[in-house]
């Protein structure tokens, strides 16, 4: 994820003394890099809708010795902050999974002061993200997951530049710029991939952790067949593409 994180932080361009809000922060790594720039006079507000994720981020922040971070459970569609109270907002792979991304983006615009920036990332279309799309397709094929519904929250629900731009402009952002950032995921084998996938957050990980031994074996075999196209000397490499945006 390093190329995505670097793009977002470069475009947000936080300064010492700024207040930056991170939405759907998860374990907090993107915001923590911003916190190092903000310095003692600045503040990072690291938030997530899931209390368990906020706890994880808080523990990591303590381990890193970060004293300028405020950890909060927060609903991005109803941000409990005053209007114009932050200088920048970060949201990496969060808006696409929200029930009402339009409301979340409108709230984001409200809490930004005039001229404040939002830097975001979502996943591009499925065909550009086989690292995730193949697993999702096989889970549906084998009856472990229902087919995705148009318009429902999903990793690919904001997978076009037109969709991202329209949501940002409708939320009141006057200046919008987007980019495509390629990423690659290297794995030693299918078992390595499944360990990675089941250890992440999200519905696919929950499904994987609930499969029986026989179901996992069938899934492993099908993935092995599909991943042959991405074979490398060390196992296989799966490409991906993030859509990133900066708006103010």
What does this structure look like?
- The chain is built from 9 helices and 8 strands.
- With 248 residues, it is α/β, with parallel strands linked by helices.
- The model has no long low-confidence stretch (mean pLDDT 95).
- It is globular, with a radius of gyration of 19 Å.
- It starts with a helix and ends with a strand.
- The protein has a domain at 2-126 and 151-184 and 240-247: Vaccinia Virus protein VP39 (Rossmann fold, 3-Layer(aba) Sandwich).
- Helix 5 crosses helix 9.
- Strands 1, 2, 3, 4, 5, 6, 7 and 8 form an 8-stranded mixed sheet that branches.
**Mind describing the biggest β-sheet?**
8 strands, mixed
**Low-pLDDT ranges:** none
- Structural class category: alpha/beta
Q: Tally of extended strands?
A: 8
Series of H and E elements: HEHEHEEHEHHEHHHEE
Distance between the termini: 24 Å
Task: Give structural attributes.
248 residues, alpha/beta, Rossmann fold, 8 strands
Concise description?
The chain is α/β, with parallel strands linked by helices. The protein is built from 9 helices and 8 strands.
Secondary structure elements and their pairing?
Elements lengths: L1 H11 L6 E5 L5 H10 L4 E6 L2 H13 L5 E5 L12 E7 L8 H11 E12 L6 H12 L19 H10 L5 E12 L2 H9 L4 H7 L3 H15 L3 E2 L2 E13 L1
Parallel strand pairs: 1-2, 1-4, 2-3, 4-5
Antiparallel strand pairs: 5-8, 6-8, 7-8
């Amino acid at each position: 994820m390093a190329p995505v994180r670097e793009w977002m932080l470069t475009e947000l361009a936080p300064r010492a003394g700024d207040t930056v809000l991170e939405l759907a922060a998860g374990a907090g790594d993107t915001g923590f890099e911003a916190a190092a720039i903000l310095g003692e006079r600045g503040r990072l507000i690291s938030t997530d809708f899931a209390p368990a994720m906020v706890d994880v981020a808080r523990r990591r922040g303590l381990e890193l010795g970060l004293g300028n971070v405020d950890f909060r459970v927060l609903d991005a569609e109803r941000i409990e902050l005053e209007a114009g109270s932050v200088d920048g907002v970060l949201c990496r792979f969060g808006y696409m999974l929200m029930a009402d991304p339009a409301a979340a983006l409108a709230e984001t615009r409200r809490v930004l002061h005039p001229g404040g920036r939002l830097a975001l990332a979502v996943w591009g279309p499925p065909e550009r993200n086989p690292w995730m799309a193949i697993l999702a397709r096989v889970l549906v094929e084998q009856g472990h997951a229902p087919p995705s519904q148009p318009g429902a929250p999903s990793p690919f629900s904001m997978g076009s530049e037109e969709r991202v731009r329209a949501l940002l402009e409708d939320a009141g952002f006057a200046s919008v710029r987007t980019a495509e950032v390629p990423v690659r995921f290297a794995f030693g084998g299918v078992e390595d991939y499944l360990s990675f996938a089941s250890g992440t957050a999200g519905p696919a990980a929950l499904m994987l952790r609930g499969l029986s031994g026989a179901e996992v074996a069938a899934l492993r075999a099908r993935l092995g067949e599909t991943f042959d196209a991405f074979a490398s000397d060390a196992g296989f490499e799966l490409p991906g593409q993030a859509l990133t945006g900066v708006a103010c």
